[in-house]
Design a protein that fits this description.
The chain is mainly β and about 550 residues long. About 5% of the residues lie in helices and about 40% in strands.
Amino acid sequence: MSKKKQGKLPALAVLSTMAFAGLVMSPAQATTIVNSTLKDVTIAPTASNEAISFNGTTSVTGNVQVNAPVTLDGDSTNALQNANVVLNTPSLTTNIPLGSNVTATQTVAVGGTQGGSHVTIKTAAPAADKITVTNNNYPVSDKVVVTGLSSGDTITVYYKDATAVITTQTAQAESNGIATVTIPQLGTDAGTVWVTCTRGSYTESDRVEKAYSAESNLTNSIEVTTAFANNGVIPDKYSMDGGNTSLPVSWKAVENAQSYALIMYDPDANNFVHWMVKDIDKAVTSIGEGKSRTTAIPGFELTNYFGEKGYGGPQPPITHNYKIVVYALNTATINLDDVGFGVSKGAFDAAISGKVIAKGEITGKFIPPLKAPDYLSEMVNLKGTNTITLSFSPAFGAESVWVQQSIDNGVTWRNSTVKEQLTAESWQATVQDLTADTEYNFKVSARKGNQTLESGVFTARTARNLANTDATVTSIDYTVDDTAETIEGVAANTDLATFTGSLTPATGAGLKVYEADGTTEVTTGNLATGMVVIVTAEDGTTKKMYTVTVSAP
């Protein structure tokens, strides 16, 4: 039988031969527990130094909290041997055995003849609001400051090092109750440290988690130079279409750096990666012009978003900005595997996270030259729409793009009405308001400044507006009567191929020859009286059936 009982017990209470779980003992006077089993007991007397006696075969298991001065007494020899006792009280008198799993959160005076030797006192943990973490920019060391301590308290800070292993730094509190722990570098990103306190011979406190912010204003902590000034224009020779020569990059050495890493990317194109180099030796402070994909490259080049290992120059449709960022790392190598389709900036950032002690960047913009639209062709030409959709290669670098049309074989041209808003990145255009069943010439024009380039001319005929419903047939060899729906004058022994070759169905219509039942198609042999010709109009629905008469031999 198990009962749960809580609240104040009456004076001189006696609990006998019972089992209690989750008991809260708040006696105003002495309480005696006889031949009982208690689990998860909280002892919180309302008066000082009240006695709680555990007699007979009484035993206490689970978690015991002692929250006020109290005397634990009695003749039960194993009362608290199997309990996890936490003493949140400044004093405790016990005359019954305590097990080895007893801890205290502050200085505790343990009296009695049996209980004291097994008590371990745990230092109270520092309050989170007394902990300040400062994540300084390199080269200033980072600091963790804890206040509200006693002189001589030892503060231990647990944090993740460059290899993500938890390491520690310690410091002792001064007479002012302040301890300052210095850490070489926590890294550029936000993170978490864990802080404990140890006082004298007491055991270390529980760990207190404390978050810290990312470093600020790191962009210019390393001076980076290249072939253009910061926010300047990238020369054409470094572009994909201008020679694809890799840029020269130089930077100032960083004290305590174990390696460097470099990335060049396009923030205007979803961080398109153009160049990525890792594990650059700490003694290196530059990469020469054109050294990508050569033995002179320091470090290890990864695959860019063009699918090529090494440098890939700018190739934007319009003006884009590009960033070159150099990182000084506290590790000689980073764990970043190459992939054939290109390593992302996100993967790069994850690989260097927590390892950056400084960084520097430079930004340039590339203004692409005008590229003529080309490869003009027809994509869609639907009946009844009076439109044609054209495809073409983008006119990269253009400030304006438009389509022109001609119906006199290019003698005169006028601007077309286009559904889309055309830009330098456009690759298709839907030309509207055309005349059905008319031949047009089209060309795409692009302009940048005073320069205009044009595509080649493409010729296309618009479709008819509506499908033809005419299901008639004509012939110069036979007599066709559309009213009587007959075809006469077919000579004896006329074969099928000769017969059908002498018939001309209406525009867009088709015809087939059948036996007299109108369902068995004739595919070979000679014509015979009674056979029928079924003509299906262009609309696919309208039909007309002619009966064939073959002349006597």
